[in-house]
Amino acid sequence: MSKEITSRTADYAQWYNDIVLKAGLADYSAVKGCMVIKPHGYALWENMRDVLDKMFKDTGHQNAYFPLFIPKSFLSKEAAHVEGFAKECAVVTHYRLKNDPNGGGVIVDPDAKLEEELIVRPTSETIIWNTYKDWIQSYRDLPLLINQWANVVRWEMRTRLFLRTTEFLWQEGHTAHATREEAIEETQKMLEVYATFAEEYMALPVVRGVKTANERFAGAEDTYCIEALMQDGKALQAGTSHFLGQNFAKAFDVQFRDKDNKLDYVWATSWGVSTRLVGALVMAHSDDQGLVLPPRIAPLQVVVVPIFNKDVAAQERINNYANELIATLKAQGVRVKYDNDDNARPGWKFAEYELKGVPVRIALGPRDMENNVAEVARRDTKEKASVSLDNLAAHVIDLLADIQSNMFIKATNFRNENTRKVDTWDEFIRVLDEQAGFVAAHWDGTPATEEKIKELTKATIRCIPLNNEQEEGKCILTGNPSSQRVLFARAY
User: Fold this and answer.
1) Of 19, 51, 61, 455, which is the most exposed, with the fewest CB atoms less than 10 Å away?
2) Is 419 exposed, middle or buried (0-12, 13-18, 19+ CB in 10 A)?
3) CA 451 → CA 121, 183, 227, 461, distances in Å?
4) pLDDT tens, residue by residue, 86-120
5) Rounded distance between C-alpha atoms, residue 90 and residue 88, angstroms
6) Are residues 321 and 364 in contact, defined by beta-carbon separation less than 8 angstroms?
């Protein structure tokens, strides 16, 4: 099966698509620009969702759900917001179909036109802040810490499975606070939640930073982000957290009375990650044989494959030991499967589980049982070892932790080796074209220069890293003074 996967060096984009399709993560849909998330891909998303959901709740947030449809007038209330999303909106204009009297099938009933068009949710700030107006009257109602898990629609012309689709799954947090300081603290706290999740569960090192004015979320005063580097040297925005100021509170007249009984507008944040994180996992860790998944979020962490011969007594010994092993591992929270299906040969199973990225594979054969050992293979390095049956469960637990750590170290080393400082325009172009990766360079701070660099190179400022060192220099394009380096890259 791995022979059907295009190599990364031959065609990285095709390699990515091959893995997503052949590893059973997703499939193309009859609806252009949309995808079908298959069980293996959805199980991976569920694991990510469950971890994040607990992290949100541990920081005081609650889940709610808001409508998929948003009245068009709501988007008009915050000018920057509507400008940012206007070109991506799907619009509902009618509420009924009817049979074509001319026999042409089903048509839109022209008499069923909506009085006000509805926008299919591209993001939920407007519908949520219209609701918050009724929920918030006093400082006693604050902070209001709400998250929702939902789907959104942003009409995309060029789509890629998981990375950019017309419809995708995500979570969006929307919080309201009594002071500017509290809202900024919330924005930064949630950024750190995302960064912790990426690094500790996805084994994905990220750069924490703030976006430039050109790259901010529409309607935000500041957008914080985590940026990751993929194996082809392109960056991927893995999560964002926005400080919205009082913009949406003013647009929807959300005011509260403080402890001195004075009326003021609340301060807002929003933050989100989406199913593009599944795409990030594929591109950051996988190889030419298929998926490589971090154990902490892999749908299946361990698979046990028996290798039977015609000796019935040997088969029984293998089955008995395997069942005991699986019970021991499950008791310790390991997601494990015993694949004793006799419709497929062991070699086919090995290739299948390698393709799907299962972190640990255990093979049990009659000769292994006689020698009191099992063959244990790890997916990340493809190393195999004979391990005593007496110590197998403990070995597997330690191995899963080692794989998780090793994947993070490997990805971090790759990121560090592909982050380069440059000081001249020629060097900037050469590194982008020949080596890619993150490029730390001086920029004069103007949107015009940022746009010109993007126009000339297709590279964008991914972020201004948090806790950035102050360093006097000259802008790579204009030569104007600069006080710090920013992080450039071509990106998804």
Assistant:
1) 455
2) middle
3) 29, 30, 20, 10
4) 999 999 999 999 999 999 899 999 999 999 999 99
5) 7
6) yes
pTM of the model: 0.96
With tokens 């088969």, the residue in question is 315
- Triad 260, 266, 270: Cα angle to 5°: 150
Class of domain 302-402 (CATH, top level): alpha beta
Going from N- to C-terminal start, the domains of the chain cover 2-70+132-285, 302-402, 420-489
Give the Cα separation of 139 and 113 in Å (integer).
42
H helices, E strands: number in the chain = 14, 26
| Alpha carbon 73 to chain centroid, angstroms | 31
Determine the CATH number of domain 420-489: 3.30.110.30
The residue written with tokens 């995302």 in the block is 194
Please, are residues 266 and 255 in contact by the beta-carbon 8 Å criterion? yes
- The Cα–Cα gap between 143 and 232 comes to 42
Q: 2-70+132-285 — its CATH code?
A: 3.30.930.10
Burial annotation 21-54 (CB, 10 A radius, 16+ → b, else e): bbbbbbeeeeeebebebeebbbbbbebbbebbee
Number of C-beta neighbours around residue 3 at 10 A? 7
C-alpha distances in Å from residue 385, one per residue of 61, 360, 361? 45, 11, 11
Pair 190, 173: CB distance under 8 Å: yes
Question: Which residue from 491, 488, 490 is spatially nearest to 422, judged by alpha carbons?
Answer: 488
Q: Which residues pair with 377 in a beta bridge?
A: 361, 384
The model's confidence at residue 80, banded by pLDDT at 50, 70 and 90, is confident
Task: Spell out where 77-193 has E strands.
Answer: 90-94, 97-99, 106-108, 113-120, 144-153, 167-177
Tens digit of pLDDT for each residue in 347-387? Answer: 999 999 999 999 999 999 999 999 999 999 999 999 999 99
Q: How far is CA 455 from CA 76, 298, 401, in A?
A: 30, 39, 44
CA 303 to chain centre: 26
Rounded CA separation 342/336 (Å): 18
Q: Per DSSP, which regions of 154-246 are E strands?
A: 167-177, 207-210, 222-229, 235-245
Retrieve residue 268's tokens. 């807002």
